[in-house]
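In this section we walk through a basic example: taking a raw amino acid sequence and producing a predicted 3D structure, encoded as discrete structure tokens. The instruction is simple. Fold the sequence below.
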Amino acid sequence: MSYRLTPQSTTGISPAELLLGRRPRSRLDLLKPHSAERVERNQQKQKEHHDIKARSRNLNVGENVFVRNYHRGSRWLPGRIERQTGPISFRVKLTNGQSRRCHQDQIRKRSVCVDIPDEDAELDIGSGSNVPAVEESIPKDTVDTAVPPVAAPRSASSIPVPERKSYPKRVRLPVE
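The resulting token sequence is shown next.
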């Protein structure tokens, strides 16, 4: 058995490794500390390090959220959580009618802030000037602070259609 486990001078690999494609265990391997304990200890250390800055995200069905947009347009799209599809993924219905499955890292809570006027001020409902405004904003604790405010969804007729780029026509000579 010792011959089969000894690396050869020409190949640098033992015959047993060449045959099996892995290093077989021997009696000497029993003297080394068990690797599973070391792996478990390192995983525990990694978890402790991760938990220092990790924050829990509690997203519920029916909650208003922003979803990260990786296409053209604004970076965050408003939507509402339809259902939870996995432990950390959700099905989100966007305001434009689309439905997306998103990981919780691509979702931010959306709060609706209502400005309440002073009690001394009179409300003139006819003019609409003192009506409280509803503003949707991204929470301040998000990583990306340069997020533009979300505009109201536009109708299909108001979206500008990009001009189609035309290329010069190819001149083909007749076959001789």
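Looking at the output, two observations stand out. Residues 113-136 have pLDDT under 50 and may be disordered. The radius of gyration is 31 Å. In the next section we compare this with other chains.
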